[in-house]
Amino acid sequence: MGTVERREREKRNMKGLILKRAMGLFLKEGFEKVTIRRIADEIEYSPATIYLYFTNKDEILFALHEQGFEELYKRQEAVLSTKDPLDRLKRHGRVYIAFALEKPEYYDLMFIMRAPARKFVEEEEWTAGRRSYEFLRKNVEDCIAAGYLPGGNLDVAAFSVWSLVHGIVSLIIRGRCSMFPQEKIKAIAEGALEYSMSRIRKGKM
Amino acid sequence: MGTVERREREKRNMKGLILKRAMGLFLKEGFEKVTIRRIADEIEYSPATIYLYFTNKDEILFALHEQGFEELYKRQEAVLSTKDPLDRLKRHGRVYIAFALEKPEYYDLMFIMRAPARKFVEEEEWTAGRRSYEFLRKNVEDCIAAGYLPGGNLDVAAFSVWSLVHGIVSLIIRGRCSMFPQEKIKAIAEGALEYSMSRIRKGKM
Amino acid sequence: MGTVERREREKRNMKGLILKRAMGLFLKEGFEKVTIRRIADEIEYSPATIYLYFTNKDEILFALHEQGFEELYKRQEAVLSTKDPLDRLKRHGRVYIAFALEKPEYYDLMFIMRAPARKFVEEEEWTAGRRSYEFLRKNVEDCIAAGYLPGGNLDVAAFSVWSLVHGIVSLIIRGRCSMFPQEKIKAIAEGALEYSMSRIRKGKM
Amino acid sequence: MGTVERREREKRNMKGLILKRAMGLFLKEGFEKVTIRRIADEIEYSPATIYLYFTNKDEILFALHEQGFEELYKRQEAVLSTKDPLDRLKRHGRVYIAFALEKPEYYDLMFIMRAPARKFVEEEEWTAGRRSYEFLRKNVEDCIAAGYLPGGNLDVAAFSVWSLVHGIVSLIIRGRCSMFPQEKIKAIAEGALEYSMSRIRKGKM
DNA sequence: CATGAATGAGAGTTCATTCAT
DNA sequence: GATGAATGAACTCTCATTCAT
Hints:
The structure is a homotetramer.
Chain A: H1 2-29, H2 36-43, H3 47-53, H4 57-78, H5 85-102, H6 104-112, H7 117-123, H8 127-145, H9 154-173, H10 185-197
Helix pairs in contact in A: 1-2, 1-4, 2-3, 4-6, 4-8, 5-6, 5-8, 5-9, 5-10, 8-9, 9-10
Chain B binds a DNA duplex (21 and 21 nucleotides) through helix 1 and helix 3.
């Protein structure tokens, strides 16, 4: 029993190690450099060993993707301490952007990458993604209830907020902001959120 | 005489055919499935033939990318017939979204795809992209001049508009909208634009 | 008749042009860059045109090879003006080395290259090469007759002279002299000939 | 333990096998036929397997090239048992020729072949080649010191000896001796060395 | 006479994956 | 549990050559 437990833990550790190094490769070298062989080199095990913990490469990507959502959700939950719905929404936006720009590879995997995403996003139900979306939706709902935002279709409202922040970060992450000087990009991202949100005020809808 | 012309046309046609089928592969199977061999299969010619029309694979991608911007810019220019800056901006948004959803593979190549984009986006000046951005920027500038939008940093303003529409379409194109029923997605996209834009009114900034 | 003649001449001219440009490519870019396509580009005709004048690539190489022997033989004949056999042999050596170092691509094709050489050297009788060899053989024969060199097998004697000069130039041409400073190589080549030949003196054999 | 050792040996064997068959292809079909695929066919493994033992094709050629110099140097060292410098030099010559004619493909790779040689010869220092050259140089130096050969530039003297033997064997290896009956070629080669060397006698320089 | 268009064959190389040990 | 060894299936790209026009 204790043995079984220890094995379980070691197995988790190994999985964790693989994921950590895989993500390290993403970070350092980009998606196309993440090969099973490279991960194996990083963890100093053989490629075959990786297949003891993950059935294939996509599963590794899926696990990283879930890790990313775990992290994002944790950050989302932190905004609950802000009570005013609009302030919370603004903070929510800042938190989302910060996550994306701090962990662009996770964000890419979660919201942009196509390659293996198809599997988790379309075939399965993308539960992790859904949870984060629901959290945003609730925030938007609160804003409507509080009269900050007009009603109508709640999904439309939530989606428009999500689109704004996703647009900001995904244009940056995928390098489509070459018209802005590199060092100003972050400020423009934050400015853009601020600029859009500033128009939202109680009773002014 | 006529012969030269016909040949010219055929050569163009062949290039066009290659691009069309390459784009078809993008659509059906995703970027990583677009290989010279697969394109060759599609056009029922040998791989070597493709090299008679394009010097390498990147050139094919670049040509598609430019085609996309040509088409987008044509659509953008059409909105000039709308004189009121705000109406024009709204129409601009609708036109952008329509383009992206009608030609998702082009949009992907232009604004999302990473792989070969690096070359055109970073190393070269991404002139085509810039031109489209300048066009939007001017529209936003007009809106500010007309008192529809608050001033401040013009790039921030333009980028926030761009981000909104890019966010909408890229979440759809990359399949992150599985929480919405497939058939409602287009309506939600348009609704999201409308929802965000409706808050903009003269003097209400 | 006149027409036939002109055509003949033009045909010769075209062949000559092809050979000239092919050799130009050898010179500028090295053997592996000499492709039918590159030659075609040089002469500003299509690749197919080349096949009107030569049945295949090897034939072009063969023709160049023969041109080379023509040139070498012309230079060899020039030494006939030196009457003393030993002086003539020494001069013969210098002339041979000068040819090889001035036209290394020709020399390579004639005496080193394997690729297409097999055909001309082995299957056919390598007539051109034979003629040059006979010329040297005669010179050596004269040296023996004049008491400068010991008798014995005439071919052995001739071959040993040929080997010396061929060794000198082929080590240089194929880049095996990296132990000598680049700028001294030519002097060493000439010195080596001188050094070896200086031991030959009448009655001192 | 024993297992590790056995594996080591097998790995070496595999490398050796690859090299052996690669050399076999050189022999039978010439340089340009030595492709990864052909080697793979020869060893009855897949092309990919070869990349487990060598990082690329050049490394295979380089390994063969080094093997050749190892073998040559071993044979060179053997002549040290001959004490008289001139006798040693003559034996040195015979040993060099014997090596070249017994292992013509190695000799070709080491001293004639152009293709990949560039790398080892020019860019790197061609250490292996240098070592063999230094060995010869020392032998010539001893001959000069003993009064067998005239002094002057030592490199010139050494190069002229090297050129003679290289000339002999490279004309044979690259098939330029079609004027001699095949079966007499070896005798002519040895005769040529003898003929040239016989002129060297103490005090007769 | 000249060629545009096409291709078969083949090059080196990479990678996810398998499996006997 | 771990892995060394192996590979099938790809990849992009090049070249000499052919042939209908």
